[in-house]
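Methods: example folding runs. The two proteins below were folded one after another, and each record is reproduced exactly as written to the output file, sequence line first and structure-token line second.
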Amino acid sequence: MSDFGRGLMISIRRPHFAIAVWLVQGALAAVLALPISNFLHAELNHSPAASSMIVAPNALWWNTARREHPDLLGTLPESALALFSAAGTRGFSAFDGAAGVGAAFLGAGLLAIVLHAFLLGGIFGSLANRGTDLTVFAREGARRLPAFLIVTLGAAALVAAVYHYVFWASGQALAGFTGNLATEQGQRFVALGRLAALVVLVTFVKVAADAIRVALVERPDLPPVTRYLVGVGSALGRLVPILATLVLWAGSTGVLYFLWSRLNVSSAATTTGGVVLLVAAQQVFVFLRAVLKVGYYAAIRETILRRAEPAAVAAETAP
């Protein structure tokens, strides 16, 4: 708790980190905002659901519109759900036929990978150099971009491999066994076991990637390849406190989403002023989520460095 609290305080004291994350998220969302809004305007102008759509979004109308306009909206939600069905989807081939907004979403995701590496490079680099302005942030982000991009792409490749061999391949291998189970509950239990194994391994990949990023910045005295190994070792040696930090971040983000769902700000969006209030409230929510995200990465750094200091001191004082 102390590490996550310190990381959150660092995020609050350096709000330009969260502002940078917030602006990047807004820029990526802007790519999709115009085509989605144009589609909604064109369709809702001829729909009786137009008057109540903002106050109470109609999921049935949206699902019907996606089925009627697959060329514009694509089948991205169905493809995403198929990944975690009982049988699973082999690799990510389900997204090969993405179209319209779905294809734009995937394209924005590829751009987000590069921007994610840049932002994390700026955050970790600024913390290591005790920089407090955007100049240091931009310099460190550009400087760390190649190495951090390798880590991000490598983690993504590992996640894809884990999904294929642990979730999809196991589903195919156990298809005959689960098909002969007497109850549906037994089949569901086997599927949940496969999903739990996937979550555990993906979580470790996430933790190891974060520890490698810290090592890449904090251990410039080591060769590049050695820094990757040191990062994996840090993840294994400090697995419990790092997982505790991860759980606290996920839990606090979940609480934030719960509070947003209870605020029901959309009920006030019946006038132009209400719509402005809704947009402003949404951006406040997105910014607070960015504060928590930056706090998590600062906490991971604190967790690894704070527990590395006693070992370093002992090594220096050893005869």
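Second run, written to the same file directly after the first:
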Amino acid sequence: MKLSRLFRNRKSRKYPIRRDEQGLSLRTRCFALFDQGKRPAEVAEELKMKETTVFRYYRQWKRQGPNFETQYAFVKSLFKKTSPEREKNLEIFSKACGVSKEEFENILSKPHGLRSFLTGQIYFPINADADHKLSMALQLALLFFDHLVKNKGKFEDVYFTLKRYLRECAKYREEEDDEITEENKILVLLHKTLAADLSNERKGRVKPDRLSEEERAALVKRGIASEMKKIESLYWIRVGVLMAEGLTEEQARERIYQDIEKDGDPNKAKAMREFQDKIHPLKINGQEEPPVSPPQL
């Protein structure tokens, strides 16, 4: 590296900023006229400016949106260090952006930090969540397109399949909430028992009885039932996905069984068939019917 580069002066503006009697720069005055609806050619003529400069300011104004300077001044006033509501405003904005108050305050302390924030140049966790939801929407749209166009499906099939899937998920969430409520009650009881046990131990008393065989068996049974509900919910979700791909409910049932059978484990296949016969039996008019083979892909 040349020594001259180490000691070179900082580059300064070629021309000074031109301001009017109120201290407004040409750029600020241009933005104000754009907010009033005037076109770049009119602004150039009124302010006696070069059209190239005016059009450059116009592109900046378009990126920021109309009335940006007014919005910028308003938001800037919310974070004045002399404002008694500054800490509260910082907390509100940081929570909306999904960052801590210290991180948001650090953004404001940087040069042009507030302007970068208002123009969307900073990426926040809240943006990542929105992008994830857009990606999910795109995947669902492609799945529906594949079913409706390539597989010559019908809108009603997709609609009722999705409606059933959402209903099953809502039911599953309600059951999960009920189970969590019951588990919380048990935990409260256990905490009280442990607190009493610890208190008695400190006093040198005899420890209270532990859970009986019947109580342990009931808790194990509850855990098994909870796990079986989760497995059944996953099964119906898989059925819904296959139906969205163009299969009937019976064909989806058989496809799931065939996928497990291809693994070469007869015990797993047998267990899946018994599981299907229990929660997803094939019955038409009260009679057992042979499964319909799904179409080969």
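Comment on the second run: The first strand starts at residue 283 and ends at 284.
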